[in-house]
From TrEMBL:
Protein name: UDP-N-acetylglucosamine 2-epimerase (non-hydrolyzing)
Coiled coil: none
Domain UDP-N-acetylglucosamine 2-epimerase: residue ranges: 23-366
Top-level EC class as recorded in UniProt: isomerase
Protein's UniProt keywords contain Lyase: no
Domain of life of the organism encoding this protein: Bacteria
Single annotated GO MF: UDP-N-acetylglucosamine 2-epimerase activity
The family this protein is said to belong to: Belongs to the UDP-N-acetylglucosamine 2-epimerase family.
SUPFAM superfamilies: UDP-Glycosyltransferase/glycogen phosphorylase
Length: 383
């Protein structure tokens, strides 16, 4: 049996790793041992419950006001014992979190191979997003099997000197996850979401919490949202607000007193996916939503200056608008007043996946370890 250990610690990682865990658990010849670091505790647990993923190991590293150094040292110490005990043939990490980089480093120390899911994303600026850009680059140096979601990601890796034979273009596993979560006639657990008039209100879903947007950028975003809510009474803004007090203090001080703005605590993954399905458009600084939302046919305005996910920008379903007050307001206004522009973005093709990424990754692992001679049928939908 080939022993494979998926390691993840945050909600975004868990959303994208859960369908892969399910695929691994069904695969012949593979012993799957799940380890979570709980870099994020409550939000991670929501996803584990949703997908019924039961970790064998839970490092439970999260603590109040944790720094990046706290996470790094706690994960490194915790994984040292786990990897020594289990001795997996391969660990799997995802994306660009501190857990991802540190798990790869820990495996390197134990001379264990590393598979990197969602490999090759680059913004080409080590400070944006911070610390994610350096996390994924450092992870890439330690990786043996690179599972790139798109051809663009593969090309980024080749330019950095990665052996092409170690790169597999798979599509993004988040599209796999949405096959589990998006349902017709979905009933929200939060009744406030059931009470929204999705037929007569143009619902704008907002998420903004990234470190580089703390302070004035978040303030600009919120003031632009306030003007949108006041000027367009047929809109209804739903903003699940990150629990970080730096973010919450600004958001609630600007937006808490408007009738057509609903501020929520972070919502579970299935709630978010079904909300995205019903909304009119999305404004976000999230990386994951840039991949998820295009598959649902909704325009995305990215509240950042750069993105490591250029494919949807090229396809036309995503537009990078930054955090300047005037630009945020004017770009939202354009989608609310120009039907042709809205239709152009809403009908663009999603370049990120076809729902079969997890299957391809498992096949690629088997191929790399000599369990099959059959190469994967790589994802061709890249831009």
């Amino acid at each position: 049996m080939l022993k494979v250990m998926p390691i993840f610690g945050t909600r975004p990682e868990a959303i994208k790793m859960a369908p892969l865990v399910k695929e691994l658990q069904c695969a012949d010849g593979i012993d799957t041992v799940v380890c979570v670091t709980a870099q994020h505790r409550d939000m991670l647990d929501q996803v584990l419950r949703l997908f019924n993923v039961i970790p064998k190991y839970d490092l439970d590293v999260m603590k109040e006001s944790q720094s990046l150094s706290d996470i790094t040292s706690s994960v490194l110490r915790g994984l040292d014992d786990v990897l020594e005990k289990e001795k997996p043939d391969l660990i799997l990490v995802h994306g660009d979190t501190t857990t991802t980089f540190v798990a790869a480093l820990s495996a390197f120390y134990k001379k264990i191979k590393v598979g990197h899911v969602e490999a090759g994303l680059r913004s080409f600026d080590k400070w944006f997003p911070y610390p994610e850009e350096m996390n994924r680059k450092l992870t890439g140096v330690l990786t043996d099997l690179h599972f790139a979601p798109t051809q663009t990601a593969k090309e980024n890796l080749i330019k950095e000197g990665v052996d092409e034979s170690s790169i597999f273009v798979t599509g993004n596993t988040v599209i796999d996850a949405m096959k589990y979560t998006v349902k017709e006639n979905y009933i929200f657990r939060d009744d406030r979401l059931n009470d929204v008039d999705y037929n007569n209100k143009r619902v704008i879903v907002v998420t903004a919490h990234r470190r580089e947007n703390w302070g004035l950028p978040i303030e600009n975003i919120c003031n632009a949202l306030r003007k949108i809510a006041i000027d367009f009474k047929d809109t209804y803004i739903i903003y699940p607000v990150h629990k970080n007090p730096i973010v919450r203090d600004t958001v609630f001080s600007v937006l808490d007193n408007l009738d057509n703005v609903l501020l929520l605590d972070p919502i579970d993954t299935d709630e978010m996916h079904n909300l995205l399905k019903r909304c009119y458009m999305v404004m976000t600084d999230s990386g994951g939503l840039q991949e998820e939302v295009p598959s649902l046919g909704k325009p995305v305005l990215v509240l950042r200056d750069v993105t490591e996910r250029p494919e949807a920008v090229k396809a036309g379903t995503v537009k990078i608008i930054g955090t300047d007050f005037d630009r945020v307001y004017s770009e939202a206004k354009l989608l609310l007043t120009d039907k042709n522009e809205y239709d152009r973005m809403a009908n663009a093709v999603n370049p990120y996946g076809d729902g079969n990424a997890s299957r391809r990754i498992v096949q690629a692992i088997k191929y790399a370890f000599g369990m099959t001679d059959e190469k994967i049928d790589e994802f061709k939908g890249s831009v």
